[in-house]
Each structure stands twice: as C-alpha cells, then as structure tokens.
C-alpha cells in the first residue's frame, strides 16, 4: 500500500471530489480524517470506508473557522502521531453564468474569499506539524493550471479564486521545501460526471470541457483519486511546487 501508516486530513470530504480522495487514500492504507459540516454525510462515508477495510475518523467543523481548524489539526497530530497529508476541497460557492460586468460584488468576492481563506487556514494548520516532522504533503485542487481565461461562458470569481490558490501553493512550496514538505496541485480542467443531470447547462459545459481535450474525454473522480495517491506517496518524493496535469490533454506543458 502506497500510503500505509499515513494520516490524511480531507476538508470537504463528503463532496464528490472529497469522496474520491478519501476513499483512494484509505484504499492505499492511510487513516483518513474526514472533515465537513454535515454529520450524516461524513458518517456515511466513514461507514463505507470502514466497510471496505479502511480507517476513517470524522469531525464536523467549518474550514473557515481559524480556531476550529487549528484545534482539529492539533488533535489529529496528538492522537494519531502526526499529519502527513492535507487537502482542502470544500465548496467555494461560486456563481456561474452571469457575465462579470453584470455580477454583484458579493457574488464575485465570495469564491475568492472562501477559497483563499480556507486554503490558507487548512494548509497552515497542517504545515506547522509537517515542519516539525520534516515531512508531509499538501495538495490543492481545481482548474486546469493553464492560465487561460474561460471563453464563451462566465464562471464569475471562480477562475480568480483558483488562480489565487495556485499562487499560494507555489509560495508554500518555496517556504516549506527546506523542511521536507511538498506542495502540489491537482488540475483536471473540469469533471463532467459531477454535473447534475437536471442542470440546464450540462451539455454546453460538457462540450466545452471535453472539446478542449486531446483524449476527447474528461478526467473522472477515480482519476483524481489515483493521481492524489501518487502525489501523496513516496513515488512522487521529488515533486513539489508543481501541478499534476490530469486534464486529458486540454493543457499542454
């Protein structure tokens, strides 16, 4: 198992991406600490992981709450022996479909504030323990990493939020590398299987995402989980400050 005896914290664990990450980490031997705001969904995921032979603990907290995030990371380190993997995939409540010139300031600012605050708080909490351990992996998620604007569809402040997280990820990698802590991003360019069946823009967004790829398909949640396991494992021990491009060829580098 690639993550045997590792402790992973997943914020937003019961969401679609969080579930993919959590189940993949558990499958590879990590003890997964599932964090979110809804007890029922967290417990359901924990039961599933345990039923498949994995290890999982749950905690209900808001990833925007500084004191709660710090206290939880400290508790995980004290009770489980350390924090080895941290990833934040909470919902950033973005408003899409409205052109920026017609969008309210509140709708524009919301995803930027949520993404940057939650990423900063969760990575800082983990990094303090990883620095002492002189090891650890912090993962970020979202976007395609290409730096290009989205054409023909407005995603509001989402692209700005993801760009800000990417800058934060690079700076963290530069500051934490000397302590053996790695910081990596997972870039998918969009996961079409996560779009609701009754969403009116599903077909247009699917065509936009898939149309940019070389493989003529989008990444799946399983692809995200597998890439995250690799990134968090010793197989990727020389990778930091960069992103794992799982855009199916939408972005070349």
UniProtKB/TrEMBL annotation:
This is SDR family NAD(P)-dependent oxidoreductase. Its EC number is 1.1.1.-. Coiled coil: none annotated. It comes from Nocardiopsis sediminis. The lineage of its organism: Bacteria, Bacillati, Actinomycetota, Actinomycetes, Streptosporangiales. GO terms for molecular function: oxidoreductase activity. It is an enzyme of class 1 (oxidoreductase). Belongs to the short-chain dehydrogenases/reductases (SDR) family. InterPro entries: NAD(P)-bd_dom_sf, SDR_DHRS6-like, SDR_fam. The keyword NADP does not apply.
